[in-house]
Design goal:
EFG_III/V; alpha+beta; Rossmann fold; eight-stranded antiparallel beta sheet; 3 domains; Alpha-Beta Plaits; single chain; binds guanosine-5'-diphosphate; 15 helices
Length: about 525
Amino acid sequence: MLDNRPTLPPEIARRRTFAIIAHPDAGKTTLTEKFLLFGGAIQMAGQVRAKGEARRTRSDFIKMEQDRGISVSASAMSFDYREFRFNLVDTPGHSDFSEDTYRTLTAVDAAIMVIDGAKGVESQTRKLFEVCRLRDLPILTFCNKMDREARDTFEIIDEIQENLAIDVAPASWPIGSGREFLGCYDILNDRLELMDRADRNRVAETIEIKGLDDPKLAQHVPAGMLAQLREELEMARELLPAFDRKAFLEGHMTPIWFGSAINSFGVKELMDGIGNYGPEPQPQPTASRKVAPEETPVTGVVFKVQANMDPKHRDRVAFIRLASGHFERGMKLLHVRSKKPMAVSNPVLFLAADRELAEEAWAGDIIGIPNHGQLRIGDALTEGEDLRFTGIPSFAPELLRGVRAADPMKAKHLEKALMQFAEEGAAKVFKPMIGSGFIVGVVGALQFDVLASRIEQEYALPVRFEASQFTSARWVAGPKAEMDKFLNVNKGHIAHDHDGDVVYLTRLQWDIDRIQRDYPELKLTATKEML
Ligand code: GDP
């Protein structure tokens, strides 16, 4: 809770909505699994992956993900831990899927940064961290794989401080590393935690001690290691800042826990950290005002749309972050963009890996609303107020390629598939005024592979991407007369996006400058508002 915030209703105050950011392989999946285990959402570690296997067709885990070990889709999972309700929003790991990741990070109040104790801050960690920083998101750090040979503790902390320019406050301190790793000294609670190597799903033994001079320490930690621990902790107290909740909530300081996700070690301490220190659901920005979570009317914003989660129904699920209020199933909400009422009769909460009907939800929760395409990224739902949530980024397509169905008879089919992905926000799709085929625009090259693979899997439609004569796209808007004049002479460069809006395609910046000069009343933009 930030100092200037009022006390929230208990149901809202107990919610923690966060994402995990990590470089691939640092242990995000393993940590997620342990969260679910300790949240009582699964019985046994290993189920997250196993479920993924069984549900591959839901497009959660498509074949390419398994081949390349990358995760394409984000989903939300809710579970209880102690008195808290955690909403964990999964972020896709690969750098090429950053569009989705960026949008996901607008739906959370905090992030857990997982780093590998032997590798430290890696490229993807840094990128994701920067996105969090843009929003001043509070970040908790988990230094994983301490059961393996790790780098020196001070070195790891230094690297985070210097690379990411954030203060790091140790919440725990590792005792030994690799084969010698015993456990941690819990600095925030003055406790000793010992890792159990025999049972990976068991929580570590906690030994209450009274500070570093407690004789009980010597019963559990060999003399040499104890001397080193005392020395290091003393140095840490001198050199490193102590945990300061305000600095953490403002995004200037990250507390760091050391552990081993696979051994269930340090995970509960991290969960306690999120629970105890927060943050609670935060106010959400709109064009006109900030919406506070404790406001009674229900409001929410779509931050992600996912198609084909269930191949039997060609439905889509819009993921909504509730910004305020207490939502109940069956509620009629205003779909602000279309100004039409919408009865939300079958919302889903993603409890663990299963969809369940959401009878109710509170500010901070993520709910899914199945729909046939009415709900788009950035759309607001309210109880009547005309709100436009801001902060959901739109991306300029930086790479353009033509796309064709391998079977030319399937062009209509392909159009349908492409429109669906365009509405999901997975790519920009342009239909040129002249000629056949489509042009697809993405931010990262790997997105083309993901698209090709999804179109083949979800629509049984092999496609080919090919070089396009264009390299840039600009949305064009302006008064009708000027627009008509412009369209008439530039037909070969004009396409329409999935909303029917006009896009100018070219390979020369010079062209764009010229049009700006020749048609001063037209506005050319590299991104399109999501609304
Ligand atoms: P992700 O790519 O970030 O989701 O990483 P995963 O959770 O899939 O983990 C990557 C690899 O590291 C897997 O082989 C895990 O079994 C392993 N791993 C995860 N946590 C630990 C840990 O605490 N210690 C060790 N030694 N290996 C771990």
